[in-house]
Amino acid sequence: MTSKQGHALAALIHELRSDWGIPGIVAELRKAADRGTPFDIALAALHAAQDEKNRTPAIIALPGPHWTRGKVLGEATSSTFARCPVIGHTSYAAHNCGACAKDDLDPTPTPQTRVGLDPARVRQILANHSTGATS
Length: 135
Known about the structure:
The protein is mostly helical. The protein has two domains: 3-67; 81-111, no CATH class. The protein has five helices and no strands. The longest helix is centred in the first third of the chain and has 14 residues, at 3-16. The chain is elongated, with a radius of gyration of 23 Å. It starts with a helix and ends with a helix.
């Protein structure tokens, strides 16, 4: 969910729940960013706001029935989303990569390295394996 979308959704929710402040709603939408697509988050936030027992927007990011309400029985309850393609960032959602956001704030480039075996060592291991030798 983009910042603009989050603020627009927070404004709508605030209009529906005037007891919930916009900054608190925005903060909880950000916390829920890894729970699904922007549509999933919007629906869950609206369902959470509809329940008068929920006194604060903190409920939005927490697990609960607002995340599964309205889903068809048998339908998967977890959302899948594309992962960030940047090396070292693949545990983040592509649409909301916290590591990319941090990189945008810190202009100092971090060298990207891959962890692995030295090609010469791999050849040595394979050669030893084919001759039956141990290393």
